[in-house]
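User: Hi! I have a protein structure encoded as tokens and I'd like to know what sequence might fold into it. I'm fairly new to this, so please keep things simple.
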């Protein structure tokens, strides 16, 4: 299990988690939670099972690690600032499933950009990667696909062909990325490929989407 591997094999000094549910409110900055004890954000729209606050978790933050993340990003040319936001379900739900507590492994949440630009995310990953040399694990929380509108639309229909293409390409890109190859970056930069932001933008603003893969499809 991945959690056992993180805890027992890697034994990290801390975890930096980039949540798909944490988007910066500042167009020019990445936000980093610097809370000592981040609150749990129960951000589950229309989901009474979780919104009733019965689910709790012992979460430990780290102002020191948070400030280090900010410094690391700034040194890499990415503006960042500390906030006291709390931890959304994109982080605490998956970690809670595998860790009874994070008391011994502090977790710092890092936001996504307020805009969607693949080169910016590649740069963000490159900047954070240096933290691994000092025993910090970096986790990106969120599925490759989280388009609930399309999921509902195709509920009783055959999956479109681009779904299989996407799954196959995703596996290859993750593999080359793990191997330190930059082929993934080149593929993402090709606007017309099935893996680019433009080909199928999952829940992104209208101006970033192509009509043939519009995620507001209703017919």
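Assistant: Happy to help. Inverse folding works backwards from shape to sequence: for each of the 219 positions I chose a residue that suits the local structure. Here it is:
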């Amino acid at each position: 299990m991945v959690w056992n591997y993180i805890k027992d094999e890697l034994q990290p000094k801390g975890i930096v988690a980039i949540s798909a549910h944490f988007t910066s409110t500042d167009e020019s900055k990445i936000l980093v939670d610097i809370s000592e004890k981040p609150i749990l954000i129960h951000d589950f729209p229309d989901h009474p099972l979780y919104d009733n606050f019965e689910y709790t978790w012992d979460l430990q933050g780290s102002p020191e690690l948070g400030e280090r993340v900010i410094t690391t990003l700034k040194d890499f040319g990415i503006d960042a600032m500390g906030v006291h936001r709390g931890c959304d379900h994109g982080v605490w739900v998956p970690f809670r499933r595998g860790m009874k507590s994070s008391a011994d492994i502090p977790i710092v949440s890092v936001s996504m950009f307020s805009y969607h630009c693949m080169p910016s995310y590649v740069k963000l990953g490159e900047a954070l990667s240096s933290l691994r040399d000092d025993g910090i694990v970096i986790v990106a929380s969120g599925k490759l696909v989280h388009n609930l509108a399309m999921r509902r639309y195709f509920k009783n229909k055959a999956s479109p062909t681009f779904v299989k293409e996407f799954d196959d390409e995703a596996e290859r890109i993750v593999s080359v990325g793990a191997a330190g190859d930059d082929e993934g970056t080149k593929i993402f930069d090709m606007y017309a490929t099935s893996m680019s932001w433009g080909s199928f933008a999952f829940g992104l603003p209208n101006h970033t989407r192509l009509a043939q893969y519009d995620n507001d499809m209703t017919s």
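A useful reference point when you look it over: Helices lie at 2-10, 48-51, 63-75, 89-98, 118-129, 148-153, 161-178, 183-189. Feel free to ask if any position seems puzzling.
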